[in-house]
Specification:
The complex is a heterodimer of chains A (114) and B (110).
Chain A (H helix, E strand, L loop, with lengths): L4 E3 L2 E4 L5 E6 L6 E8 L3 E9 L2 E4 L8 E7 L2 E6 L8 E8 L7 E3 L3 E5 L1
Parallel strand pairs in A: 2-11
Antiparallel strand pairs in A: 1-3, 3-8, 4-5, 4-9, 5-6, 7-8, 9-10, 9-11
Chain B lengths: L4 E3 L2 E5 L4 E6 L6 E7 L6 E6 L5 E4 L2 E5 L5 E6 L8 E8 L5 E3 L3 E6 L1
Parallel strand pairs in B: 2-11
Antiparallel strand pairs in B: 1-3, 3-8, 4-5, 4-9, 6-7, 7-8, 9-10, 9-11
The chains are: A mainly beta (114), B mainly beta (110).
Chain lengths: 114, 110
Amino acid sequence: DAGVIQSPRHEVTEMGQEVTLRCKPISGHDYLFWYRQTMMRGLELLIYFNNNVPIDDSGMPEDRFSAKMPNASFSTLKIQPSEPRDSAVYFCASSQGMSGNTIYFGEGSWLTVV
Amino acid sequence: TQLLEQSPQFLSIQEGENLTVYCNSSSVFSSLQWYRQEPGEGPVLLVTVVTGGEVKKLKRLTFQFGDARKDSSLHITAAQPGDTGLYLCAGGDSSYKLIFGSGTRLLVRP
């Protein structure tokens, strides 16, 4: 299996611009997660989906962030407008089944907002 | 709010030494996972423990879940340079939300 695929791997953008991060989960996985990792706050769960439906978005920092999962093989995380404090590594992860099962992470999208 | 505190934050040791990393919380978790993350990559699951008092071994790594399911430890015997990385514990609750600890950065010097 190819694993969780994220794009872009690296993005540098100017403050105020829209940023779209993309994720292809592992085929057959019914849970998809978006995490953000920074030195200061560590790894934080932003939102997760089950069978393409958003279940918990309480970790989404503010209205500038939105996530969609139009089908089982694709999800996006959008930041509009972006701010320097959004600079972080954004990870997408997927799993099959409930608590205790293995979560597979992608390699991350490194975002720098200048 | 559930929080997981890991200690130490940083650890630099010589190859061949033993070490223990701790993960503590005031909350009870239904499961506890340990991940290792290498630079430029996502975290990779090492182990999942679900029963209070459970001990799991993975080669030179020994994982223990506290009796009250609030804490866990990771012990590495005879550390090797390949063990270098960021070790993260993560607690799971009934909602399937994983709460990650702040991590322990381990450097094993040859």
